[in-house]
Amino acid sequence: MFAPNEDTLTKVSTDAAMEFVQAFYTSLQSNRGSISTFYSPATSTILFNGNVVAGGAAVQDIFVSQMPPTHYEVQSLDCQVINQKYPTATATGVKRAAEKSAKDISILVTVSGYAKFGVPKNVPQRVFSETFVLVPAPTNSLGGVAKGKGGKGWLIQSQNFRLVV
Amino acid sequence: MLKLSTATMHNMGRAKVSRGRSRGPDRGAVRKRGGNRVDRDGDFDMDRNVDRGRGGKKARGYSGRGNLMIASTQGRDQRKMSIDRDRTRNAIQKALSDNTTTSQANFGRPAAKSGTSQAIIRGWKQSKASSNPDGGIQSLVAFLEKKMTPSDSKASANTRTRITKWRVEGDALIVSVRPELMFRLLKINGFSFAGAALTIEEYGQPAVGEASTADTKAKLTTFLGKRYFQQTKLLNLSGLGDDPDLVSMGLFSTTSTKSRFFPALMKMWELGFDSPEKCRNAVDSVSLANNQLDDISDVTTLSQTIPNVKNLDLSNNNFKDLEALSGWRWKFRRLEFLDLTGSPLSADPSFKDTMLKWYPKLRILNNTEVRTTAEIAAQGKAPIPVQPAYFRDDSQIAENFVRAFFVGYDNDRNDLVNGIYDNNSTFSFNVNTSIPRASQQNSIPSWDPYIKKSRNILKINHLPAQMSRSYVGSEKIRELWNTLPRTKHPDMAARPEEWLIECHSIPGLPDPSEQCEVGVGGLLIVVHGKFDEISPSKVDTRSFDRTFVIGPGGGARGVRVISDMLTLRAYGGHDAWDPNSQQPNPPGPRVNHPQAPDGYGAPAPGKTDARVQQEQMILQMSFKTRMTLVYSEMALSGNGWNMEAALRNFEELKVQGKLPQDAFLLVM
Description:
The complex is a heterodimer of chains A (165) and B (668).
Chain A: H1 6-30, E1 46-48, E2 51-53, H2 56-65, E3 70-83, E4 106-117, E5 126-136, E6 154-163
Parallel strand pairs in A: 1-6
Antiparallel strand pairs in A: 1-2, 3-4, 4-5, 5-6
Chain B: H1 6-10, H2 15-18, E1 37-38, E2 44-45, H3 68-96, E3 117-122, H4 137-148, E4 165-169, E5 172-177, H5 182-187, E6 192-193, E7 196-197, E8 199-203, H6 209-227, E9 228-229, E10 234-236, H7 244-248, H8 255-271, H9 276-281, E11 285-287, H10 302-305, E12 311-313, E13 337-339, H11 351-358, E14 364-365, E15 368-369, H12 373-379, H13 397-411, H14 413-420, E16 426-432, H15 448-451, H16 463-468, E17 471-472, H17 474-481, E18 486-488, E19 500-509, E20 520-534, E21 539-552, E22 559-570, H18 609-625, H19 629-637, H20 643-655
Parallel strand pairs in B: 10-11, 11-12, 12-13, 13-14, 16-22
Antiparallel strand pairs in B: 1-2, 3-5, 3-8, 4-5, 6-7, 9-10, 14-15, 16-17, 18-20, 19-20, 20-21, 21-22
Helix pairs in contact in B: 3-8, 14-17, 18-19
């Protein structure tokens, strides 16, 4: 059975977290039409300030139609591998143990930073804390990442956003 | 007017006898005549109604839940305070006396031993002699000596009048002569020296050694007593250069004493209070008007001593541009009124926008409303409504976990690790050091105990460091935890508002038995809160965000921690997650005016916006002029509600003595 070493797991997870955070907050700010592509088709719980949101499409809808322009500044970021042998979804079910690689992991990501809501430059900065669980994007029948999701390797399984200051 | 009575001053030596007497219900700051006390050091004792001997037993300053932890914290703070106070005294001593080793006398102790008098000479910089290599000093001194010597005397070199010492400070020359010769020196005032008219004034007071420092402190204390208005929480530091008492102290004669004066004054102010908090809250309004300030460098300490000021009058100064104020860019987070009229920078096209950006609560700028109270209230509202914690537990697993966890983390980390962490558990933490500005705290306690292990991967890019800062397995976690500072989290039952704990289930966790290919289910728990960090010397409060992933485990408690991630940040309170603090129309800011009824200057049903604005102007007029609301309104309405015109009018009438006694507030 494949057993990735610590180096590989650390590299894969930190790269994934960095790339995800970079792309996701950029989309929230300036490419809201792409927000849903960051979400797994089978999301678990998504929370914004305690409000439950149904899934990626609903999050995108809220940001497109209700949210004022928002500026995020990610100031600290950490991640851990939750499951080194995540049962990645495939076209027919989940990957079996023998098919797994270092990319079949789930990743816990925590972010801390500033958020500013609204157009005027003088709106106050709020502090937010956000936790994500990222899981591998489902593979198609050929074992590659399913198309139509912007080619992202990891997708949001669950998310918890809170303004904390 | 408030004044320190001379009797009080003379009683300095036994001032402590009277402490505790006349303990009134008001815990305010400066009292009326006779109520002020000056302690042995000459410090203004504005707020010490509780015997010092009992210091620390009573958790003053807190709402007093009788919480042990807070009480002991307070005790520590007070001990620290008293050390700080001693340090501060020393600093004042230093600031006010000249400890340099030069033989030149200086401010605070002019003519320390020799029994000479000093005079300050200005105007010579404009003379032709100032282009001499020595700046013309030698020839100026020779000129002065010559002019001081009586023309009819047959003076030989020995009997000729001598200037014993001199020094240059900025554009001033300070000379020492024997006291009996001072009158001759002063006669030269107005004489022309190499094409420039000289001004000569007596400088400082002949004083001896330490006594002069104590004297200066007493004078500053008296000055503060005169300039502080407790009822209105106003500290009026306008026109400092014109204050006869300060001028007679020679405080503004030279650039160096001038730059040392304000920090010393601020330290004297702090010493008048027995806690920084009381000091901070004693003042709502500060005026630094009419001080010919080119920038804030001389007065910048104001933002440390009185950071919570709401009304700041900087009118009639000489600030050229925004740069002149930039040191106060992140200060005064509660500023509502700001007056910069009469300075060139007000004409800067970006002036208004910049001030709005710098001061999020700014409402009135240069006597014009720039933000409504509604706009300020709206700032606090999140575009995403704040809901109570989302907590979907499974058989109270998360609840029991969280309750036990933080008690264990505070009291017995070894036991905690043994109980719920195993060889696959991962812990890491990161410090968000960028938060300070969002917090209202003055300074953030150092992150030193943490920073070398912080795994903020935005900053920690190298793989080996990323790996070494991730702690896998109970042994490594235990080892790390034993190096981290001791903590005390608030009691969840007693202080639920200080916690926000959310929880929901999560699928796809690793199965320790490796039997289930699709993984097992568990819980994801996110906790936001605060803790006190306990070190031998002090207690610091910090905020944290902590995420746990827990799954079924074989231990006694039936759960294991899979992931534990901690973020530390500067203390930021708990209002952000309180659904009730996000009400659409919070009450307007309270006005501290002796006459203003509740709601004065704030919007109310049936009150027009125009009236609200008028009331705010009346308040401001009253704060500036000390006139009653009625007279302030008369002054404004009589001048078409033009603040500047009304103020000019007021000054004219005041000078002409045309304002009756009852135009002024009695308490000020």
